[in-house]
Amino acid sequence: MRKKKIVAIVEASSTGFGVFSENLPGITGYAHTIQKAKDDFIAAIIEVNGSNNYEIAYKYDIVSIFEHLSFLDVTETAKRIGINSSLLRQYKSGIVKPSEKQKERILSGLHELGKELINIQL
């Protein structure tokens, strides 16, 4: 059977991470780490539906991106993206929410980094 594609949102809170999808109202996952929150979300899908017939694409908020990619140095990432490192730290900590334009700038910078990493050969 072909899996249905859905988008799940990963959001940080003061105590952990939540995962939910607008496609599956009432089904959520929560844990202290992103991976465990994703696992909890999938377990909830299976509990409600009897199986997981979904191909899940995860969408992150800024706080969760930097938690998930904890190896990224904020200062160096800010330089690459071309934004103030203090401002990026505020986004990372959740003190300030980035505008849509800033989100796009950050996303574009992270995608450029990803392209560089894919092209590395050893």
Give the helix tally: 5
Q: What is the N-to-C order of secondary-structure elements (H for helix, E for strand)?
A: EEEHEHHHH
Q: Major sheet: size, sense and barrel closure?
A: 4 strands, mixed
The name of the CATH topology of the largest domain is TTHA1013/TTHA0281-like
CATH-defined architecture of the largest domain: 2-Layer Sandwich
Strand order of the largest sheet: 3-2-1-4
Q: Unreliable segments (pLDDT under 50, ≥5 consecutive)?
A: none
Organism: Chitinophaga silvatica
Protein name: Pilus assembly protein HicB
Name its key features.
122 residues; 5 helices; Pilus assembly protein HicB; TTHA1013/TTHA0281-like; 2 domains; 4-stranded mixed sheet; alpha+beta
Describe this structure in words.
This protein has 2 domains: 4-60, TTHA1013/TTHA0281-like; 71-118, no CATH class. 48% of the residues lie in helices and 20% in strands. The protein is built from 5 helices and 4 strands. A 4-stranded mixed beta sheet has the order 3-2-1-4. A hairpin with a 4-residue loop joins strand 1 (4-12) and strand 2 (17-20). The model has no long low-confidence stretch (mean pLDDT 92).
